[in-house]
């Protein structure tokens, strides 16, 4: 075991490191230094063992410490650490991964464009969608419709497609010709109706927006099958079929951002398969390599791929690390391990049903207004009053998250919503521990508020 000088590391961190999505002044020199991990647990520099109920950032699907992935990286880096896929070259790991991904994808998807991350995948989506309509002789179709509170990454294109108001407010303007419609967030915005009615209403805001803009201007609709960073927002069952109907009716491209839902999170290879939709494009990243190395891609359906290939000539787009050999080798091994270990079956038949039952048991807690889950995604809505479902003042989620860390579990807060997305390999006993630690963290928060003693 390494020994760490936590004080010194924290001080240097505070002095030199600008963190992503962090208030640096508030953080000061108080960062928690993560030094190791195994299975579903991380360790910090002070020797604490913490259950990582977020799988890092929704990505460490096979858990930590998988030697097979380390070996795949080592072998590939020894053989060929880098080469690109530009200008009529390729290498075996990128080729094999492309073949594997298109075998796992729905039948109408037979091509993949590699990137280094989810954000780059969504930048690629914007360029590809606009190029597609140009080739179709309808270059005025440039508008992409996303959703308020959707998340599609943090580059200019990713932040623009996403509907996170605080991101849009910082240093705009965002990309032109991106519009946003309502999100299917029943607990937050639709409780006066049944979930089914609300789901239809939310979906029909797409139709309304298309009519308002004129279908001649609309290129595509983008959404996550289940919104992740927005607070694990699980759409009512009526939502996706109606979205699919509207996209089909108006002939616009459907983009399912599978960066979180892809690779088993909902018990299928892709979230689109769970909801039975047929996207033209599927950006992926995160779980593709279980987060061991950075890699993303866009799975491209035949409608778009055939047009780009047959009519497009050279597509002036690509990244130095598109299909990076070591990253591709690790991703391929990750997918093989998922098959060898029947991870999808484990999620579908064992982990998700048990998690759903245990997670729902938190509903009796005085701070909890709703629990919901799908696959291995879960959310809790924090409320000040369980009958009226009135909310606390902002800040309660962040307090609860800090308490989680001290209790020994990582949960994430999104406003007043607590979310989890544990590694897919989580066992029943570990789910019991996750729920027990979540309850302890809620208790600690309730005690701070003087609601419990
Ligand atoms: C995380 C995320 C992204 C961005 O991926 P990065 O690898 O962080 O760029 C895009 N879409 C969704 C749905 C995500 O959850």
UniProtKB/TrEMBL annotation:
This is Aspartate aminotransferase family protein. GO terms for cellular component: cytosol. SUPFAM superfamilies: PLP-dependent transferases. One of its GO terms (molecular function) is pyridoxal phosphate binding. Residues 1-24 are annotated as: Disordered. Keywords: Aminotransferase, Pyridoxal phosphate, Transferase. InterPro entries: Aminotrans_3 (IPR005814), Aminotrans_3_PPA_site (IPR049704), PyrdxlP-dep_Trfase (IPR015424), PyrdxlP-dep_Trfase_major (IPR015421), PyrdxlP-dep_Trfase_small (IPR015422). Its cofactor is pyridoxal 5'-phosphate. It comes from the Bacteria. It comes from Oceanimonas pelagia. Belongs to the class-III pyridoxal-phosphate-dependent aminotransferase family. Residues 10-24 have a biased composition (Basic and acidic residues).
């Amino acid at each position: 075991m390494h020994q760490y000088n936590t004080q010194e590391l924290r001080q240097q961190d505070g002095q030199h490191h600008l963190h992503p999505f962090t208030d640096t002044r508030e953080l000061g020199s108080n960062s928690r230094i993560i030094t190791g991990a195994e299975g579903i647990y991380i360790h910090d520099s002070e020797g604490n063992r913490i259950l990582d109920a977020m799988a890092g950032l929704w990505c460490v699907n096979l858990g930590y410490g998988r030697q097979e992935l380390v070996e795949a990286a080592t072998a590939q880096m020894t053989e060929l650490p880098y080469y690109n896929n530009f200008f009529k070259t390729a290498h075996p790991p990128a080729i094999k991964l492309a073949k594997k991904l298109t075998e796992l994808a729905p039948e109408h998807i037979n091509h993949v464009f590699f990137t280094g991350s989810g954000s780059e995948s969504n930048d690629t989506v914007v360029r590809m969608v606009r190029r597609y309509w140009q080739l179709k002789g309808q270059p005025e179709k440039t508008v992409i419709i996303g959703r308020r509170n959707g998340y599609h990454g943090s580059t200019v294109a990713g932040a623009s497609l996403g509907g996170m108001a605080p991101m849009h407010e910082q240093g705009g303007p965002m990309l032109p010709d991106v519009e946003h419609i309502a999100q299917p967030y029943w607990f937050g915005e639709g409780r006066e109706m049944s979930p089914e009615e609300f789901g239809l209403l939310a979906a029909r805001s797409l139709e309304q927006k298309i009519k308002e803009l004129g279908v001649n201007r609309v290129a595509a609709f983008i959404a996550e099958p289940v919104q992740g960073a927005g607070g694990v927002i699980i759409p009512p069952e009526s939502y996706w079929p109606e979205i699919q109907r509207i996209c089909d009716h108006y002939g616009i491209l459907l983009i399912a951002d599978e960066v979180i839902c892809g690779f088993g999170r909902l018990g299928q290879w892709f979230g689109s398969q769970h909801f039975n939709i047929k996207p033209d494009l599927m950006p992926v990243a995160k779980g593709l390599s279980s987060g061991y190395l950075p890699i993303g891609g866009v799975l491209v359906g035949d409608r778009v791929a055939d047009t780009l290939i047959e009519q497009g000539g050279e597509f002036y787009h690509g990244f130095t690390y598109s299909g990076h050999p070591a990253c591709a080798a690790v991703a391929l091994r990750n997918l093989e391990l998922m098959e060898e270990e029947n991870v999808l079956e484990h999620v579908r038949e064992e982990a998700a049903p048990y998690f759903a039952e245990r997670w729902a048991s938190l509903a009796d807690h005085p701070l909890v207004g709703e629990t919901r889950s799908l696959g291995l995604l879960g959310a809790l809505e924090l409320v000040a009053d369980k009958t009226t479902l009135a909310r606390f003042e902002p800040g309660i989620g962040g307090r609860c998250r800090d308490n989680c860390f001290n209790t020994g579990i990582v949960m994430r807060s999104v406003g007043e919503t607590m979310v989890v997305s544990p590694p897919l390999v989580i066992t029943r006993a570990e789910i019991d521990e996750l729920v027990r630690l979540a309850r302890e963290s809620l208790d600690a928060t309730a005690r701070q508020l003087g609601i419990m003693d």
